[in-house]
Design a protein that fits this description.
Blueprint (H helix, E strand, L loop, with lengths): L2 E5 L6 H13 L6 E5 L1 H10 L5 H9 L8 H7 L5 H12 L4 H6 L3 E8 L5 E5 L5 H10 L9 E3 L2 E5 L8 H6 L4 E5 L14 H7 L4 H8 L1 H17 L4 E3 L14 H26 L1
Parallel strand pairs: 1-2, 1-7, 2-3, 7-8
Antiparallel strand pairs: 3-4, 3-6, 5-6
Helix pairs in contact: 1-2, 1-12, 3-12
Length: 281
């Protein structure tokens, strides 16, 4: 049996996920592998480094810092979330990411990005926390129109959620057969077609793959949710989701709203804790 943890993205909705995973860490709930998409990757890597509370701490500390996230940053650098500040200065100097613990932890960790030319998902196993690892996380979370593309290992990428928002089937395909999924939308949520696609075609027209992925994203997403709910009903998957729509924007500068989303995740994590323990036995 291989125990897997699958983390949906959703930008600042990921603070709900961070609340759940902090409860897991505090109660020694462990997994053989974790796969995260976008915010699920950027926040989820702290599970492998064992840093409870780090996600909510640095987000509330820097949420009003222009270099962290601002229109000014977008205009000046091409990234709404400042690449150098968020992925290098912050983890290296301001709220240090525990690279040593990350590297020693045997848990596998994967980040998902989307190849802008093919539109296919790229699943990158990140074993060592170094400069390139942070760039893979940046690629996974680089939202179209709000970020520059990221090129690594000959691949040019943007947000992993465009190709595979909830990589359940990927984890199953590599042998994970006892999986917990943390979603950032409540039960009954149905994704609609992105209204910004016409603008994206103008701004990103040379990247035919990412345009194709975005055009069908809502279809793929809703099919994945149906797949998850079917497996959940048969006890073959454990799903954790917000009890209601999170009152937080994808981009958020209000620390109180951040804390509220995080605390809701903690509350839900504590509620399902005995059920998760039983499921993973």
């Amino acid at each position: 049996m291989k125990k897997g943890l699958i983390l949906e993205g959703g930008a600042m909705r990921g603070l709900f996920t961070a609340g759940v995973t902090d409860v897991f860490m505090e109660n020694n709930i462990t997994f053989d592998g974790t796969v995260g998409v976008s915010a699920g990757a950027v926040f989820g890597c702290n599970i492998k480094s064992g840093q409870t509370g780090r996600v909510i701490r640095y987000n509330t500390r820097f949420c009003k810092e222009p270099k962290y996230c601002s229109v000014r940053s977008l205009i000046k650098t091409g990234d709404l979330y400042g690449a150098e500040f968020c992925y290098h200065k912050l983890p290296d100097e301001l709220d240090i990411f525990d690279k040593e613990t990350y590297n020693k932890n045997p848990m596998e960790f994967y980040a998902v990005a989307t190849d802008v030319y093919t539109g296919e998902a790229i699943y990158k196993r990140i074993d060592k926390a170094d400069y390139d690892a942070m760039e893979w996380l940046r690629a996974s979370a680089s939202m179209p129109l709000a970020s520059r593309t990221v090129t690594l290992e000959g691949k040019t990428m943007l947000d992993g959620g465009m190709a595979d928002s909830i990589p359940v089937k990927f984890f199953e395909s590599i042998g994970y057969d006892k999986n917990v999924v943390i979603l950032t939308q409540p039960k009954g949520y149905i994704k609609k077609k992105n209204k910004l696609i016409p603008l994206m075609k103008i701004a990103l027209g040379k990247y035919k793959g990412i345009i194709s992925a975005m055009e069908k994203r809502h279809i793929v997403y809703n099919e994945t949710i149906s797949y998850i709910e079917d497996k959940e009903s048969r006890g073959e998957l454990f799903v954790i989701r917000p009890p209601h729509k999170l009152e937080i924007g994808k981009i958020e500068h209000d620390p109180d709203k951040m804390r509220k989303a995080y605390d809701l995740g903690r509350k839900e994590g504590e509620r399902v804790l005995p059920l998760v323990k039983e499921y993973l036995k």
